Amino acid sequence: MLLEAIDIHKSYGNVQVLRGVNLQLQEAEVLSVMGASGAGKSTLLHILGTLDTPDRGQLIFEGTPLHAVSAKQLNKIRNQALGFVFQFHNLLPEFTALENAAMPALIQGIDKAEAYERAACLLEYLGVAHRAKHEPGRLSGGEAQRVAVARALVNHPRLVLADEPSGNLDEANAIHLHELFLKLREDFRTAFIIVTHHKELAKMADRGVWLNEGVIAEEWQRRFV
Ligand SMILES: Nc1ncnc2c1ncn2[C@@H]1O[C@H](COP(=O)(O)OP(=O)(O)OP(=O)(O)O)[C@@H](O)[C@H]1O
């Protein structure tokens, strides 16, 4: 098992957002998370990605209970094993696509030549190599999002957490991005947790969960024929 979340609780003030979420993710699995606006999807994703801490409950990543590790180790796990993609790509405007994609590798102290090589390969793989020298302001929404995906993958994460990654894209680009996630799973065995409002896109995943009233109220599994 890649990730296990046990009895996750989270409140903001007296608003109980998560009231005991239990979730398991297998290696190379693609999971979609749905739920009404305000149901706590982003809150859950942030907790699963170690960007936020639960008030109660446990997170176990590749057999390691994350509450038991030091802040330094947690940072290392986050940087090396996890990747993030958000609705608004959050690329740094003053850097080129290539520099943006290489950034997490450079931050991790990977040799500059190696970091740029990895980033260039990913831009090629994602079909945006011809935009490598452009700043984000000169990219289309779909191109910028693919650069953000390259950035999320540059440290070869085991799991990518995506919060409405296609929320800002038109239908064709949104489907393309989700197809890309499935291809990345095939090619690199990367697992994905994808928050989306879009039912059709959610159905492309292996499994889906529906958050309601702070718990997983429904779950479905894709049938293979
Ligand atoms: N930092 C915060 N401080 C206070 N309240 C917060 C904070 N973050 C989220 N909330 C509240 O927690 C609830 C869940 O928010 P969250 O963003 O997780 O929902 P969501 O399901 O992702 O919603 P949406 O689909 O609209 O993005 C909301 O009521 C929100 O206002």
TrEMBL record:
GO terms of molecular function: ATP binding; ATP hydrolysis activity; transmembrane transporter activity
GO cellular component, one term: membrane protein complex
One of the Pfam families matching this protein, by short name: ABC_tran
Domain ABC transporter: 3-225
Transmembrane feature ranges: none
Enzyme Commission number, as recorded: 3.6.3.-
UniProt KW Lipoprotein keyword: yes
Keywords: ATP-binding, Hydrolase, Lipoprotein, Nucleotide-binding, Transport
Family: Belongs to the ABC transporter superfamily. Macrolide exporter (TC 3.A.1.122) family.
Stated name of the protein: Lipoprotein-releasing system ATP-binding protein
Protein's organism: Thermonema lapsum
Highest classification ranks of the organism: Bacteria, Pseudomonadati, Bacteroidota, Cytophagia, Cytophagales
